[in-house]
């Protein structure tokens, strides 16, 4: 698989309040599953690291959906106030609403769903997996903050891969503790030589490989 066909930017309503969010869907010719991305604090669906991971997954015949957890107005406010980026309740609610939406959207309704969360987005992904156990088949966390979803971790049923940089000492410990609290199949992968953002040469490529293998194992079942 050499490429995935992108749809035009999609606007959709998510969550009880019906917030209008924007997303980008990339569909291989014969997708094996769909990976929904939850970006980290202060980021958006245009996150270059998430885009790189998504492109790699597309080449493995996995569809990807990258979307903004905040509305355009909220994002503008958050750039100055940081009011929303750590509101895990809000972010989780939006992600759950997005899972419900892709489960009904014609192009993705029949695909098993995985979640890829980065930083605070990983906390939202874990909470959403606990909230929608019948919908979420696998979770991958990159440099995640699972401690922000601590109370829901035992409820997560989806197999979960926790990826942390080898130099990200505090986050390594947070992920170790999270793995111990989880009842689901889980694995902690520490990428040597990587800091929190996986900016070092070769480290993001390792994340891509780990995520691909995890999703292919659990979304094809």
TrEMBL record:
Gene Ontology terms for molecular function: hydrolase activity
Sorted UniProt keywords: Hydrolase
Name the UniProt record assigns to this protein: Dienelactone hydrolase
KANL3/Tex30 alpha/beta hydrolase-like domain residues: 34-202
Organism: Methylocaldum marinum
Record keyword Cytoplasm present: no
Keyword Hydrolase: yes
Top-rank taxon, per record: Bacteria
Name of one Pfam family that matches: Abhydrolase_11
Gene3D superfamilies assigned to the protein according to its UniProt record, in alphabetical order: alpha/beta hydrolase
PANTHER family: TESTIS DEVELOPMENT PROTEIN PRTD, TESTIS-EXPRESSED PROTEIN 30
């Amino acid at each position: 698989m050499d490429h995935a066909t992108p749809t035009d930017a999609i606007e959709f309503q998510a969550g009880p309040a019906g917030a209008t969010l924007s997303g980008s869907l990339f569909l291989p010719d014969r997708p094996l599953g769909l990976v929904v991305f939850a970006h980290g604090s202060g980021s958006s669906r245009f996150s270059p690291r998430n885009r790189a991971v998504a492109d790699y997954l597309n080449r493995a015949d996995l569809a990807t959906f990258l979307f903004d957890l905040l509305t355009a107005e909220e994002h503008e406010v958050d750039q100055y106030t940081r009011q929303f980026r750590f509101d895990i309740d809000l972010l989780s609610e939006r992600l759950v609403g997005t899972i419900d939406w892709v489960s009904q959207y014609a192009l993705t309704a029949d695909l098993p769903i995985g979640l890829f969360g980065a930083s605070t987005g990983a906390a939202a992904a874990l909470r959403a997996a606990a909230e929608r156990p019948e919908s979420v088949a696998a979770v991958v966390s990159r440099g995640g903050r699972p401690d922000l979803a601590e109370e829901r971790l035992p409820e997560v049923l989806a197999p979960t891969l926790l990826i942390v940089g080898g130099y990200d000492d505090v986050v390594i410990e947070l992920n170790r503790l999270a793995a111990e609290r989880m009842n689901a199949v889980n694995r902690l992968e520490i990428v040597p030589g990587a800091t929190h953002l996986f900016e070092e040469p070769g480290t993001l490529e390792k994340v891509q490989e780990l995520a691909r293998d995890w999703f292919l194992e659990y979304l094809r079942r």
